[in-house]
TrEMBL record:
Organism: Ruminococcus flavefaciens 007c
Domain of life: Bacteria
Name assigned to this protein: Metal-dependent hydrolase
InterPro entries: RibonucZ/Hydroxyglut_hydro, UPF0173_UPF0282_UlaG_hydrolase
SUPFAM superfamilies linked: Metallo-hydrolase/oxidoreductase
PANTHER family membership: METALLO-BETA-LACTAMASE DOMAIN-CONTAINING PROTEIN (PTHR43546:SF8), UPF0173 METAL-DEPENDENT HYDROLASE MJ1163-RELATED (PTHR43546)
Length: 206
């Protein structure tokens, strides 16, 4: 199910969308060097890892990151810095940047301008990568077909809160991420599945 989406671990996502798109590559075990586009949601070590970017990048890879993230000039790659609400295109793929932040937690302040992304795919519909976030007025307005939502708690939504967000935005498919290693436990995916409305198909990739 949804074989074109792979979760390495945590929030490390690979999407083969004709163009190969990585989001927050982390703990990459083999150097595939196949990334056309790399999305960075924010600057925490488990989301913005230069060592892991080097394992997936090619000479012509384009990196997309928030304007608040320091441009990785040492990689000698093309970098597009974007802000929340911005719609843009990279290598023929359309994207939208969505605010990602905590409410009542100190880890991801809204003022940092950190992001999630929507990939607007002609083949698979709108794919929402939520980034490190709580349920917010911004992400409750997202329209998507596939949603990848953090479920590990502590720094983000936990499994039940992630399901609440999925139930609010009602994608066709929901995939829990960001649990089992840096945050959360391996059974958070099943907790998420049980709390998601039956009209939404939950796909466990971790």
């Amino acid at each position: 199910m949804l074989e074109f989406i792979t979760i390495n671990e945590h929030s490390s996502i690979r999407i083969d969308e004709g163009k190969v798109i990585y989001s927050d590559p982390y703990n990459i075990s083999s150097a595939a060097h196949d990334a056309d586009i790399i999305l960075i949601t924010h600057s925490h070590f488990d989301h913005y890892s230069l060592d892991d970017i080097r394992k997936v990048m090619k000479s012509d890879t384009v990196i997309v990151c928030p304007t608040s993230v320091n441009e990785p000039k040492e990689l000698d790659l093309s970098v597009k810095q974007v802000t929340a609400g911005e719609k843009f295109e990279v290598l023929g793929v359309r994207f939208e940047a969505v605010p990602a932040y905590n409410i009542g937690k100190p880890f991801h302040p809204k003022s940092n301008g950190w992001l999630g992304y929507i990939i607007d795919s002609s083949a698979h519909g709108r794919i929402y990568i939520a980034g490190d976030t709580d349920i917010t007025p911004d992400n409750k307005q997202v329209k998507c077909d596939i949603a990848l939502i953090p479920a590990g708690g502590t720094f983000t939504t936990d499994a039940v809160q992630a399901a609440e967000l999925a139930n609010a935005i009602r994608p066709k498919y929901a995939i829990p991420i960001h649990y089992g290693t840096v945050a959360g436990s391996p059974d958070d995916g099943e907790k998420f599945r049980k709390a998601v409305d039956s009209c939404i198909e939950v796909v466990i990739k971790l």
